[in-house]
Amino acid sequence: MISSLVFVFSCHDSTLFIKCTNTGHIIMSLYIDYMIITSDDNDGISVLKKELAKQFEMRDFGYLRYFLGIKVAYSPKGYLLSQLKYVADILEWARLTDNKTINTLIEVDAKYSSSDGLPLTYPTLYCTIIGSLVYLTITCPNIAYVIYVINQFIASPSIVY
To answer: Per residue in 18-65, pLDDT tens?
Structure first.
């Protein structure tokens, strides 16, 4: 269906489709039954929506504000992405909302082993939190190294004293 609308697959992302028009480019991202359409060709977007509406039942939610746990805000300098609500949801789900936060630097030369410490009582919770934190690196790339380190122990998480 998408190829009949003269869209081509992006070589970078299998859910991203691009169409060149006389006015510019139309970019469409698909996720299950949701899509984001953006372009510098407003008329092209209108035509695309009409074509898609002939084939599918559709609703237009207007300008993008929130998608897959990411808040999107427009400013004159560009778009601002935030996962603040996603972080709050993780903390509440993990029952960490009453804790006080502090900056804790990771030890550079520390050597950890999967046999160190006592096994966690609820390893599934640890695995789920790690997965959530990996998704959080979309807007917080500064936590990527720490997530990499703690992800190494996902097979046998433990508490080290």
So the answer is: 998 888 899 999 888 889 999 988 899 999 999 888 888 888 888 899
Interatomic CA distance for residues 57 and 80, integer angstroms: 30
Residue from 137, 138, 136, 122 nearest 89 by CA: 136
Dihedral sign from CA coordinates of 105, 110, 114, 119: negative
Task: Report how far residue 1's alpha carbon sits from residue 21's, in angstroms, rounded to the nearest whole number.
Answer: 18
Could you tell me the strand order of the sheet in which 78-82 lies?
66-67, 70-75, 78-82
Sign of the CA dihedral running 45, 1, 17, 132: positive
Nearest to residue 107, comparing CAs of 145, 159, 156?
Answer: 145
| pTM of the complete model beyond 0.90 | no
